[in-house]
Amino acid sequence: MIRILLAEDQAMLRGALAALLRLESDIEVVASAADGQEAWRLIEQHAPDILVTDIEMPNLTGLELAQRVRERGASCKVVIVTTFARPGYLRRALEAGVVGYLLKDAPVEQLADALRKVQRGGRVIDPQLAVDAWSEADPLNDRERQVLRLAGEGLSAGEVAAQLHLSQGTVRNYLSEAIGKLGVGNRIEAYRLARQKGWL
C-alpha cells in the first residue's frame, strides 16, 4: 500500500481528493490536513510514504513544507497538486526536493499513476511547466521574498520587522533591493509581478 498524507486548505476539495484516492486499491490516505503546520505534525505522527500538498495554505505553504521535509530528513516524498501553473513555483518546488508537480485540472487517474511512479522512485513533472521553469530565473533571495510577501499582504515596515525580527531599516533595504531587481516602481508592483511569476 502507498500511504498518503493530503494537505489542502479547501475542505471540499480535500474531502473529494481523499474519497477519489481511496477508490484505488493500492493507495491509503492515512490522514489529511487543512494547513502546513498541521501537515507537518501529521507527517511526524504517521510517517507517510508521500505527502500530496497544495502550494497556497495557511501557516506553512506547500513549498515551505517541502523544504522542511527535506531539511529535517523526513522520509516521505513530496508531490504538489496545485492550480498554479507558474514556472517560478515549479522551480522553487524542485529546489525544495519535490518529486511531483501536477495541476488540479488533471484527471484523478493521472494523480494515482503519478503517485505510483513516485513511490517507485520516479519523478512526475508537467512537461510544459518544466520547460518554462528554466526560461526565466527568479532574481529574489529568500529574505527579499519573505519581506516582499508580507509587505504585499498589507503589513507596514514596522510590522514586517517585528514578525521577521529585523530592524525597519533592514526591511526597507530588502524591499528596495526587491523593487530594483524586478524593475518596478514600488512594493505593490513588485509584489504583483513576483506573484504573477510564481516567485512568492
Automatic annotation (TrEMBL):
It comes from Tahibacter harae. Coiled coil: none annotated. The modification 4-aspartylphosphate is found at D54. Keywords: DNA-binding, Phosphoprotein. Residues 133-198 form the HTH luxR-type domain. PROSITE patterns: HTH_LUXR_2, RESPONSE_REGULATORY. This is Response regulator transcription factor. Residues 3-119 form the Response regulatory domain. CDD domains: LuxR_C_like, REC_DesR-like. It holds the Pfam family GerE. It comes from the Bacteria. InterPro entries: CheY-like_superfamily, Sig_transdc_resp-reg_C-effctor, Sig_transdc_resp-reg_receiver, Tscrpt_reg_LuxR_C, WalR-like, WH-like_DNA-bd_sf.
